[in-house]
């Protein structure tokens, strides 16, 4: 065997390789697998390939092709109807700070809020495994009722199915929701401009770490509570203080790193984050360090990432921090023109690196 | 946490970088100083904190063979999948290993086809599963250097003590010194020194590396895993050159003792024996470079309990992992890097683990100095 160090490679060759890779990355992901694996559910490139090849192919239409958190449908009044749906399979069903019930309400309410909608009505469908205790089901329903009341939405329709033992894991919940986006409000990646500021409404990674620890398969204890919460109220606070807000997203599965990558790709910009500005609670940071995971990729259920014009950033931050759900809000970065479609992190150490799409979610079912 | 912050202090980093720039001025005979970081953990730190961009062009870091996932050959992955697909077997593995491609897919794909494959964070978790499911055979896919071998040993000792018979270990533990020797033996070696592995050395100590300086005339500095550790170790290597010394030194004194950890070493002695030879991905067979279970623990040895195909499978043609593991090429110089081979569709093992040079470069470093500068300038 041999170990050689090349003389310095001719200038330019590395750039060529990097360009080739960027071109390759822009291609639409292709589905080559024969069976569905967990990777198809992890929110990365594999998920995109599956959705593209199977669902978009079957249902293709303009509203779906936006692939947003929810669909926006025009109404004669000039308002828009926002419509979103999500399934919840988190294990365990209860974790510090919430349950699959409260999560099923918050998740869908937040998807609507990220479109700029005021959520109004929800549906709830339950797939229940034979043998599931009624008392537990009632407790989950009570959680949902409380969460709905707090979010100002009503559960107006639903469905119940029971399946054989082993055909589901206790209970799975699917909710769908509708809300109205007032006329004139438009939050979209194409409004994002170089020079804009990136904000986050609070600390990163609380939900993912809380659920991971609640599963109890790690010999690790830390005082971490899920951040699951409805965000529609906080969004209204933000939009009042920063009416020029360009874009909003709740960094659930895949975390802040993933939504910033989606933004960079959709808007054709660079998102430049500052490691030292990322708000992370100590126990969450400590657990992530121990497990070798990056809080940037850990799920949140009560936070949003917002892009606002630089001149409105100060007002936005002050308003968010005055709200109980936004007390830890922070400016975490800015939008730059280049390098296009890339998320960069300026490390606290003084270097910089890429924050890429995550491959193969290291975390088990968290939502 | 203060402990960690202290080793990520940007002001201290600037001081170290200035010192490195002074010491490395002019390079070595017109070429940059080439230092190999032996351990995958270092590769990860280097990329994660963007250390390469902080260094002057007169210092080049070369990634070494110390990523445990990267060195597992295809045949062993096939064996693991064969085990996992046996009825009645629960196959447990660290998450990274589940994505490593064998000749017919990965463990993750075997799981999707119906095999009972479960991710664990430690071998003790696997033992817990065995206790909870006494009618299943629970196998643990053990990988790693002397760093992780002690926890496998503890688990086996506990299994014996509690008489847990439905548990076994498929050992792929490897040792660090033989591949290091193999790299040093290579005729066209052009490395100037080594950042020695920190975690491994907490177990084996600093002494086993003496030969690197004495026989091969290359300095080695055992290095910790925080970004400042890496910079300090580079300073120590360069100081050796400046002062005309060539020694094995220890930067990671807060953790590593010269004699290592005698308790862990005794445990390894008891539970494992050296294999006469073991195949390393891309590096071929290396004598006495891996650990099998000792006779005392034969009853817990998956290789003896089950029939394994044990077929040697050639690496895919396009794969240049061997060259990458030896530091002969940079990850991006591999022909399939970033196109056919990506973290989502890995061809080689170096693209799987976040400690693998290709994966680390792809996910964190895929950026030229000029591009990093662009973002800074356009803000
Ligand atoms: S790019 Fe892929 S095939 Fe090439 S060396 Fe790296 S891991 Fe191996």
From TrEMBL, chain A:
Domain called PurM-like C-terminal: residue spans: 193-340
Protein name according to UniProt: Hydrogenase maturation protein, carbamoyl dehydratase HypE
Stretches assigned to the PurM-like N-terminal domain: 69-181
Gene3D superfamilies the record matches: PurM-like C-terminal domain, PurM-like, N-terminal domain
Source taxon at top rank: Bacteria
UniProt xrefs under Pfam families: AIRS, AIRS_C
A Gene Ontology BP annotation from the UniProt entry: protein maturation
InterPro entries found in the cross-reference section: HypE, PurM-like_C_dom, PurM-like_C_sf, PurM-like_N, PurM-like_N_sf
SUPFAM superfamilies found in the cross-reference section: PurM C-terminal domain-like, PurM N-terminal domain-like
Annotated family: Belongs to the HypE family.
Organism whose genome encodes this protein: Blastococcus mobilis
From TrEMBL, chain B:
UniProt entry tagged with the keyword tRNA processing: no
Record's keyword terms, sorted: Iron, Metal-binding
A biological process from GO: protein maturation
Gene Ontology MF terms: 4 iron, 4 sulfur cluster binding; carbon monoxide binding; iron ion binding
Family matches, as Pfam families: HypD
Highest taxon above the source species: Bacteria
UniProt keyword Amino-acid biosynthesis, yes or no: no
UniProt similarity note: Belongs to the HypD family.
Cross-referenced PANTHER family: HYDROGENASE MATURATION FACTOR HYPD, HYDROGENASE PROTEIN ASSEMBLY PROTEIN HYPD
The protein, known as: Hydrogenase maturation protein HypD
């Amino acid at each position: 065997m041999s170990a050689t160090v090349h003389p310095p490679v001719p200038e330019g060759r590395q750039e060529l390789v990097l360009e080739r890779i960027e071109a390759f990355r822009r291609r639409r992901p292709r589905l080559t697998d024969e069976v569905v694996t967990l990777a198809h559910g992890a929110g990365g490139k594999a998920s995109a390939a599956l959705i593209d090849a199977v669902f978009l192919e079957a249902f293709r239409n303009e509203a779906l092709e936006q692939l947003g958190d929810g669909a926006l449908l025009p109404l004669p009044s000039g308002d828009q109807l926002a419509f979103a749906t999500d399934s919840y399979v988190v294990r365990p069903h209860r974790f510090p700070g919430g349950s699959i019930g409260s999560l099923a309400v918050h998740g869908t309410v937040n998807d609507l809020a990220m479109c700029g909608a005021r959520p109004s009505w929800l549906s709830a469908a339950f797939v229940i495994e034979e043998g599931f205790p009624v008392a537990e089901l009632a407790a989950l329903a009570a959680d949902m009722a409380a969460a709905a009341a707090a979010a100002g939405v009503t559960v107006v329709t639903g469905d119940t199915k029971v399946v054989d033992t082993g055909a589901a894991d206790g209970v799975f919940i699917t909710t769908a929701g509708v809300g109205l986006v007032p006329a004139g409000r438009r939050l979209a990646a194409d409004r994002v401009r170089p020079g804009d500021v990136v904000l986050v409404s609070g600390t990163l990674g609380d939900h993912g770490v809380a659920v991971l620890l609640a599963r109890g398969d790690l010999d690790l204890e830390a005082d971490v509570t899920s951040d699951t919460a409805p965000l529609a109220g906080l969004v209204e606070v933000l939009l009042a203080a920063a009416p020029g807000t360009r874009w909003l997203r709740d960094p659930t599965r895949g975390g802040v790193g993933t939504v910033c990558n989606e933004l960079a790709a959709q808007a054709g910009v660079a998102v430049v984050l500052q490691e030292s500005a990322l708000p992370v609670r100590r126990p969450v940071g400590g657990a992530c360090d121990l497990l070798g995971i990056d809080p940037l990729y850990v799920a949140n259920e009560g936070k949003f990432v917002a892009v606002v014009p630089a001149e409105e950033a100060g007002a936005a931050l002050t308003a968010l921090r005055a709200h109980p759900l936004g007390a830890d809000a922070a400016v975490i970065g800015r939008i730059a023109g280049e390098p296009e479609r890339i998320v960069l992190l300026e490390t606290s150490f003084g270097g910089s690196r890429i924050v890429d799409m995550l491959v193969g979610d290291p975390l088990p079912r968290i939502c | 946490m203060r402990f960690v912050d202290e080793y990520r202090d940007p002001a201290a980093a600037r001081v170290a970088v200035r010192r490195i720039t002074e010491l490395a001025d002019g390079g070595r005979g017109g070429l940059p100083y080439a230092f190999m970081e032996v351990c995958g953990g270092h590769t990860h730190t280097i990329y994660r904190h963007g250390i390469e961009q902080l260094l002057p062009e007169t210092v080049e870091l070369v990634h070494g063979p110390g990523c445990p996932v990267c060195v597992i050959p295809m045949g062993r992955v096939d064996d693991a999948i064969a085990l996992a697909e046996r009825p009645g077997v629960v196959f447990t593995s660290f998450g990274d290993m589940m994505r490593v491609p064998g000749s017919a897919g990965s463990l993750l794909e075997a799981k999707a086809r119906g095999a009972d494959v479960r991710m664990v964070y430690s071998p003790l978790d696997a033992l817990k599963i065995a206790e909870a499911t006494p009618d299943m055979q629970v196998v643990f896919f053990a990988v790693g250097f002397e760093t992780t071998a002690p926890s496998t040993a503890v688990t086996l000792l506990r299994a014996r003590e509690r008489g847990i018979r439905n548990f076994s270990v498929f050992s792929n533990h490897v040792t660090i010194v033989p591949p290091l020797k193999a790299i040093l033996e290579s005729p066209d070696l052009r490395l100037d020194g080594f950042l020695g592995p920190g975690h491994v050395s907490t177990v084996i100590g600093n002494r086993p590396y003496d030969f690197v300086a004495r026989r091969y005339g290359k300095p080695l500095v055992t290095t910790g895993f925080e970004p400042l550790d890496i910079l300090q170790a580079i300073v120590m290597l360069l100081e050796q050159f400046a002062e005309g010394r060539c020694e094995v030194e220890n930067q990671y004194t807060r953790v590593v003792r010269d004699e290592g950890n005698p308790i862990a070493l005794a445990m390894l002695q008891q539970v494992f024996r050296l294999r006469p030879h073991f195949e390393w991905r891309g590096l071929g067979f290396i004598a006495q470079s891996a650990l099998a279970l000792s006779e005392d623990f034969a009853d817990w040895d998956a290789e003896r309990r089950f029939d394994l195909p044990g077929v040697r499978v050639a690496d895919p043609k396009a794969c240049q992992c061997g060259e990458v593991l030896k530091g002969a090429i940079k990850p991006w110089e591999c022909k399939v890097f970033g196109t056919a081979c990506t973290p989502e569709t890995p061809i080689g093992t170096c693209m799987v683990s976040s400690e693998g040079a290709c994966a680390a470069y792809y996910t964190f470093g895929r950026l030229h100095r000029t591009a990093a500068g662009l973002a800074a300038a356009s803000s």
